[in-house]
């Protein structure tokens, strides 16, 4: 071993011994434990709230635009506030697809091939440019805070009686049929 190699080995041995001595100090052990717990917590949070495949996530927003998705992706982070699913091939949104998203305020599903909205399925404000031909009675019952709803450019023929009876804050509603005789509704 060269002269420099011996010095390097000696230097590393001394630093290792000093480092181990420092770690045995109770204050440093407490700090090391804190760092380990923080690392573990962040690792677990990242693993449990991963972004769905083909989507991009940042803070409280999930964007899955134009990915030819056939259904709502699984594993959407539960703290999502804004979910953008526009320009896909989603034909149905099942009742449990959005159930875990308690903080969801904005759901964008325009330019899909949605055909039916079932009771209690979701709380979207903008459902335009789909193929919705039927809305079940009670579909919007849980949307007490709903203020605006756009259902234009769909295939609606009729709406159930009193469908918006529980939507006391609804002051703007736009409904225009795509194929059938158009009709407009504006509620002040």
UniProtKB/TrEMBL annotation:
Ranges of residues in domain LRRNT: 50-82
Pfam families: LRR_8
GO CC annotation terms, alphabetical: plasma membrane
Stretch forming the signal peptide: none
Transmembrane segments: none
Keyword annotations from UniProtKB, A to Z: Leucine-rich repeat, Repeat, Signal
Keyword flag Repeat: yes
InterPro entries from the UniProt entry: Leu-rich_rpt (IPR001611), Leu-rich_rpt_typical-subtyp (IPR003591), LRR_dom_sf (IPR032675), LRR_TM_domain-containing (IPR050541), LRRNT (IPR000372)
PANTHER family per the UniProt record, alphabetical: ANTIGEN BSP, PUTATIVE-RELATED, CHAOPTIN-RELATED
Protein's recorded name: LRRNT domain-containing protein
UniProt source species: Brugia pahangi
């Amino acid at each position: 071993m060269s002269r420099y190699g011996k010095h390097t080995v000696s230097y590393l041995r001394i630093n290792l011994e000093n480092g181990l001595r420092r770690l045995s100090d109770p204050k440093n052990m407490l700090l090391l434990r804190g760092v380990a717990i923080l690392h573990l917590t962040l690792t677990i949070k990242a693993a449990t709230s991963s972004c769905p495949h083909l989507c991009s996530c940042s803070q409280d927003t999930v964007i899955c635009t134009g990915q030819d998705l056939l259904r709502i992706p699984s594993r959407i982070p539960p703290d999502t506030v804004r979910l953008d699913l526009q320009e896909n091939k989603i034909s149905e949104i099942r009742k449990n697809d959005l159930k875990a998203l308690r903080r969801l305020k904005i759901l964008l599903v325009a330019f899909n091939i949605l055909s039916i909205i079932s009771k209690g399925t979701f709380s979207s404000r903008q459902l335009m440019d789909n193929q919705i031909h039927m809305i079940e009675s009670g579909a919007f019952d849980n949307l007490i805070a709903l203020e605006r709803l756009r259902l234009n450019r769909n295939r609606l023929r009729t709406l159930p009686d009193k469908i918006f009876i529980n939507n006391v804050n609804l002051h703007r509603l736009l409904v225009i049929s795509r194929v059938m005789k158009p009709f407009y509704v504006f509620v002040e």
